[in-house]
Predict the 3D structure of the following.
Amino acid sequence: MSSARKKANSRIESLRSMLCVGLDSDSSKIPDLFRSMERPVLEFNRAVIRATAAHAIAYKVNTAFYESRGLEGMRDLEATLQALPPECLSIADAKRADIGNTSRQYAKAFFEAWPFDAITVAPYMGFDSLEPFFEYDDKLVFVLCLTSNPGSRDFEEPLMQDGRPLYRTVLDRVRSWQRNGNAGIVVGATKAGLLQELRAEAPDLFFLIPGVGAQGGSMQEAVEQGADPDRRSALVNVSRSLIFPKGDFRSIGEFEAAVAREAAQLHDEMRNLL
């Protein structure tokens, strides 16, 4: 089993949590009290990490929110990665894939230059576009399978010539591509009934489940239907509803306390379900 998967499952067992904190750190949404700081997004991230570290299994860094700010944003991405607790899984939510030699550079970027434990990738260019990621058999590779957005109906859900939806083919292929248990899929919490079917068909894969919180997915269904038979190998990602709590915060301490309360509540929900 890959070392990244072992790390995540060990923490799931220890904390009885599946919380993945999504650092979708939109600079236009961070509280005003951070804006006077030299590196507002980085200090915001550090505050969120401090507030959630006791409850989190993983942190998912959505690279778009850093790449969009150019060099400054990429520096914040690197410093954020360094700030993550080493016992927690680090995920680059980059959704990369390209022809093989290009994907090899993407894999090197996110597994070596920035040593993330895991990455999200898109499957629609086929195995040669993903093989460079799977060659890192100590990591985790999360392949988009059945996503939480409405547009999943455009390509993922329509039936193919064999009478099955495309996401079923993706599931089968990912199971055959994995090495040393380093494969996972992304399945939206808003697809709860289908989530249960996918887990039944793929007890060996690690599931990354976005869509709880702002997108309206059910925490109970995500945990109960997404966990493997050992009640492990799944992460439930929560982003906006956790890292942007409502309130007019006068200090970083007040902000961290609000995030910590939400994280603790999510953890309690998960603990009662595991």
Observations:
- The domain at 3-273 is CATH 3.20.20.70 (TIM Barrel).
- The chain has one domain: 3-273.
- The mean pLDDT is 94.
- The first helix runs from residue 3 to 15.
